Amino acid sequence: MNSFYNVSSQHNAAAAVIQDVVQQLTSAPTEANFGFVYVTDAMTTDFPNLIKHCKEATGIKHWIGTIGSGVIAPNKELYDTPAVSIMLANFDENDFTMIPSINKSENLISHIAWPRTFVSNFGIIHGDPLNQKIQNMIEDLPQQIENGFIVGGLSSSHDIHYQVTDEVVHGGISGVLFSENVGVITNLSQGCRPVGKKHKITKAQENAVFTLDNKPALEMLMHDMGISTYKELEQNAHEVFIGLCIPDSDKSDYTIRNLVGIDPDHSLFAINDFLHEGNEVIFCNRNSETAVEDMQAMLDNLAKRLKQPPRGGIYISCLGRGREQFGNDSEEIKMIHRTLGDFPLTGFFANGEIHHNKLYGYTGVLTLFI
What we know:
Layout: E1 5-10, H1 14-25, E2 34-40, H2 47-58, E3 62-68, E4 70-72, E5 77-79, E6 83-89, E7 96-102, E8 121-127, H3 134-140, E9 148-154, E10 163-165, E11 167-169, E12 173-178, E13 184-189, E14 193-205, E15 208-212, E16 215-216, H4 217-225, H5 230-236, E17 240-245, E18 254-263, E19 268-271, E20 280-285, H6 288-305, E21 312-318, H7 323-326, H8 331-340, E22 345-350, E23 353-355, E24 358-360, E25 364-369
Parallel strand pairs: 2-3, 8-9, 21-22
Antiparallel strand pairs: 1-6, 2-6, 3-10, 4-5, 4-22, 7-12, 8-12, 9-23, 10-11, 13-25, 14-15, 14-20, 15-16, 15-19, 17-18, 17-20, 18-19, 21-25, 23-24
Helix pairs in contact: 1-2, 6-8
């Protein structure tokens, strides 16, 4: 089995989706021994039953996946109604180990049957956004294994945030670790365009920034964004975002946060995260144009790194991207195939995206098996 294998289905009823998927899986390559599975929120209550039928239809015991506000099939995005996207693969049993459901950050590695022979570890994980320790676990896991590089996403459901890691679970993180023998390349698109330079936070309290570089914070924001009046800022606030620069990053990396309020009387602004004096921020512009521009740059970077067509891929995108920024014709997914060619692809729209051991928002994370 040299390539991966896709199955997808969308119907008005979950039972019809499961029946369709099972029928398609009967034609799957018998060598497949691993499955990635993503379902829309409309399939939440049927998720355990789906996994049961997938195992019975294929004989595959190793599965990872979760629930999204939408799912990514090979050439389209599926939303609103019950839908499933599955990708099957064949990996050497010695080159992966499952990450069971872990719901606290202490001594993570003790829960994993981690082969110490792995020189490096590439992990794909899914997490429950309701777990208050989720960010700590995402950052702690790669520190407890050698040369850990983690990607993934948080479930997006109005009900239980189910995941599967061989068995159906919820409440923490779960997934898989691959050895260096499984070839992968990955990249992310922030969908933003940084404006101006980085600024150091010189006075902050909780989520409010009073001064940047010892100057009034709101004045600095308006100057960098080219905004002259408070009314203009209010009108364009939906395109103004704050990038929290990641310390000690080997690149110009940042996590995007929302601008949630301004106080002209004190020249301060507030975001949806806690801030610390000494940290750096950069202002960003985010709209449909910047999303397309940054997505294409990410894909071009991956294309240059590819020496052969991808065998398969997993794309985890923010629930605020997809049709919200690229339109209703699955343009975000079509961009991937226009640039990189046709290959099996699965994924979902997440409530938080994980790349290189960090939790992001508003990003798209593409992982290619090569």
